[in-house]
Known about the structure:
Blueprint: H1 6-33, H2 37-60, H3 69-97
Helix pairs in contact: 1-2, 2-3
Amino acid sequence: MNVLSIPTWVIHISSVIEWIAAIWLVWQFAEVIKNPAWRSLSFGMLPALVSAMCACTWHFFDNEPSLAWLVTVQAAMTMVGNGTLCIAAWWIWRSQQTVTPNS
């Protein structure tokens, strides 16, 4: 674990914890406003969480060359996550378009 400094580890770990908290808060928000489209955002955030966990795992094992495949998984999950977040945002936007305004 000597590849990263303690402050860098604190940032890495706290970022993962914050992302997990954000996923949970978005899910709770969907419950409060009774709009299930917001749940798609929670699911859309999961690939980015996997990406972050891959990075932390690789660094934990001192960037072991035999675990270099984690870098590929991280990059793939980042790409997939960007797509799922885009789709979730579109889904939320779309759900708002179908709401009839009170006139």
